[in-house]
Amino acid sequence: VQLQASGGGLVQAGGSLRLSCAASGCIFRNCAMGWFRQAPGKEREFVAAVLWSGRRTAYTESVKGRFTISRENAENTVEMRMNTLKPEDTAVYYCVARESSDRLPSDSRQWPWWGQGTLVTVSS
Question: 56, CA 20 to 30 Å: which among 9, 33, 72, 79?
């Protein structure tokens, strides 16, 4: 499975960014996808995830109401729209995938496939 993330960049606090991740090699029908992030000096953190069906999503508390994850199954991509960005959202964001029809774990060890990471920098 290969994941190719894009869309990071520099934005001022309060601004928006959209991250995108293209998946190949994953049986998309059974492939949950999501995002983790890692800020400098901090542990990797679960951000959001979505089932293949799109019917269920999960978010870490700090991004609820600001981030929206969605997927376009016809294109094997997942997107995350990030609004009202804060300096504390600054991190390298990683696209992840796992075979799952019903679970969206926040434990990074349960996501076997990882993309290369894309940097998001939010200036104050």
Answer: 9
The DSSP code for 109 is: G
pLDDT, tens digit, 9 for 90 and up, residues 3-56: 999 999 999 999 999 999 999 887 656 889 999 999 999 999 999 999 988 889
pLDDT in the model for residue 102: 86
| Sequence letter at residue 76 | N
CB proximity list for 26: less than 8 A, separation 6 or greater: 1, 76, 97, 99, 113
> What does the alpha-carbon distance between residue 43 and residue 91 come to, in Å, rounded to a whole number?
11
Q: How far apart are CA 115 and CA 93, in angstroms?
A: 9
> CA 80 to CA 34: how far, in whole Å?
9
Phi, psi of 107 (to 5 degrees): -85, 120
